């Protein structure tokens, strides 16, 4: 325990016990303080220094009110890694490391770096087609579904997916994390620079 966590009365008592003839080790044991703390108090007394709290002692805090606001505003936003937040703060004149940002987000705010959930990237027409498909076949029985042959294609990938490891969102609630739209069946190429978008699903009906 350091000097700041002890009252001035306790420090004066420790010094008085030493002046009274008690060794510093026994003083530390009696007051349940580290020996190093008792030695520091005694040294200050011998130098004639006040045993009260030093005003402004210690390293200034790097997490100021302005820094807290900047970090808090990053919650729920995409592409806001601790490294990018630290760079943003340094450009504003605050010497904050990404480790400091990470500790504040984790330990003070209680936030977690979530991976963004994936959802299909669909047009309004595709959404409408999917809904109509389900509505039209809502009451189909097993025999009717047996007449459907499900098939698929293997198109070339055009839209390279982003790194899920780096694409994280800091938030205190996973439900507030914005999803990431992904194309289930990306555009395919014919090798000549022409592209066409393949349907997410193709079905073929067989006659009974």
TrEMBL record:
<dbReference type="GO" id="GO:0006313">
    <property type="term" value="P:DNA transposition"/>
</dbReference>
<dbReference type="Pfam" id="PF01498">
    <property type="entry name" value="HTH_Tnp_Tc3_2"/>
</dbReference>
<protein>
    <recommendedName>
        <fullName>Transposase Tc1-like domain-containing protein</fullName>
    </recommendedName>
</protein>
<dbReference type="InterPro" id="IPR036397">
    <property type="entry name" value="RNaseH_sf"/>
</dbReference>
<dbReference type="InterPro" id="IPR002492">
    <property type="entry name" value="Transposase_Tc1-like"/>
</dbReference>
<dbReference type="GO" id="GO:0003677">
    <property type="term" value="F:DNA binding"/>
</dbReference>
<dbReference type="GO" id="GO:0015074">
    <property type="term" value="P:DNA integration"/>
</dbReference>
<dbReference type="InterPro" id="IPR009057">
    <property type="entry name" value="Homeodomain-like_sf"/>
</dbReference>
<feature type="domain" description="Transposase Tc1-like">
    <location>
        <begin position="80"/>
        <end position="137"/>
    </location>
</feature>
């Amino acid at each position: 325990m350091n000097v700041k966590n002890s009252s001035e009365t306790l420090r004066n008592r420790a010094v008085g016990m030493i002046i009274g003839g008690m060794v510093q080790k026994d003083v530390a044991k009696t007051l349940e303080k580290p020996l190093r703390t008792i030695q520091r108090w005694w040294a200050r007394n011998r130098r004639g220094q006040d045993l009260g709290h030093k005003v402004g002692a210690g390293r200034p805090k790097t997490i100021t009110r302005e820094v807290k606001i900047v970090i808090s505003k990053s919650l729920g936003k995409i592409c806001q890694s601790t490294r990018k937040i630290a760079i943003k703060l340094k450009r504003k004149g605050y010497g904050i490391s990404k480790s400091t940002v990470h500790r504040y987000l984790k330990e003070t705010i209680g936030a977690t770096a979530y991976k963004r959930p994936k959802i299909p990237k669909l047009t309004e027409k595709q959404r409408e087609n999917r809904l109509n498909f389900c509505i039209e076949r809502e009451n189909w029985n097993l025999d009717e579904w047996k007449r459907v042959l499900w098939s698929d294609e293997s198109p070339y990938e055009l839209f390279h997916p982003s790194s899920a490891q780096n694409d994280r969102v800091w938030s205190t609630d996973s439900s507030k994390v914005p999803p990431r739209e992904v194309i289930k069946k990306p555009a395919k190429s014919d090798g000549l620079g022409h592209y066409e978008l393949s349907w997410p699903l193709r079905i073929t009906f067989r006659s009974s």
